[in-house]
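Re-run requested by the PI after the first attempt was lost when the workstation crashed. Everything re-entered from the original request form. Ligand of interest: magnesium ion.
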Amino acid sequence: MTDVGAAEALIFERIQPLPARRVALSEAAGGILREPVRAERDQPPFDRVTMDGIAIALRDWQDGVRSFEVVGLQAAGAPPMTLSAPGRCIEIMTGAMLPAGADAVIPVERISRETTQAHVEPTLDVAARQFIHPRGSDGQAGSLLLEPGTSLNPPEVAILASAGCAEVEIGAAPRVAVISTGDELVEPGQPVATHQIRSSNDWAIAAALERRCSASVTRVLIKDEREEMLARIAALHDESDVLVLSGGVSMGRYDLVPGVLEQLGVELVFHKIEQRPGRPMWFGMSRASKPVFALPGNPVSTLVCLYRYVLPAIHRALGLTATPHEIVRLAENVEFAPDLAYFLPVVVESSSDGAALANPRPTNTSGDFVSLASTTGFVELPRGEDVYSKGLAVRLFRW
Ligand code: AMP
Ligand code: MG
């Protein structure tokens, strides 16, 4: 049996990068950047005026001028005007380019206007280059703005736009086959007999993959029947980048998945992890180097394995560089005697002093996924303790 860290390492070692794809900027949010992005121009690209008011030559102010002749009006987006003679000013708007010959801006609140004259409060302090955001002060043309591996959230989308990127290279949306196995499984919307259950794992897996990995998901139910499994999994393998199965990986007579996968040439990397829940997880690589994750069918086990192993693996394949772990503190003591890692559902609340506290919400069994409603996610309690103390810093996995 493999422990949690070793299982993760075995997966990460084998994960190959997915291809990159050029997409329109409108498609970039949520993607993982696969190319460096450099500044198109200096930022700001010109000496940018930061106040509505008048642009003057500081020299005039130092020479005692307090009333200026307004010789023009310059808005944001207009080419720069020129202050050509002493005693003049240009009415200027926030965002405009500083006029040639001007080197200070006086805000409109400090000015009284009389037809073409602007009278400035005579005792005002006027500093050189005041209310001017200097060209290049935030960044130089050609400087690296975003590195490959960056997750594209709205601020990064703004940076891409500022760099003039109408298109950008991101990790291509992975095609993931989400396969639930089990004779008992029935789709929502279909009649369900007393001896059957609704298939829910595949819906949660698909939702997580779509939200977290922008995956394109094909969701399929397959009976516990060897020939059907062989044919359908083979076909799904050919049209997908990643396979995520749930159910059929334990020791029962109808747990056919490991045998079927090996018959299809998927090489076993590990089976079973020293953890609860989710111990029977199976992982292998197909001959085409596609990862195959076979998760135990119990719904809490499925979710824990999905978030602990599958999503991080796909993030890597998309090109995401390692992100810091999210750490929270246990809000109370937790007892867990087995020599296994324990994945414990929690509700996280922030305390007033800034700590994030994880309140345990253990489920009745690994089949009890109804108790997961409104939980934040789960924490990982590393194996080897019997009691995990209140205040212990532990890693959180958010749904
Ligand atoms: P298995 O891993 O196939 O032995 O399944 C373990 C338990 O999980 C059984 O009670 C199954 O009915 C349940 N289960 C398996 N697949 C699903 C699914 N797709 N949705 C909900 N429960 C499932
Ligand atoms: Mg089953």
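Saved to the shared folder this time. The chain has four domains: 4-19+172-318, 21-43+137-171, 48-133, 327-398.
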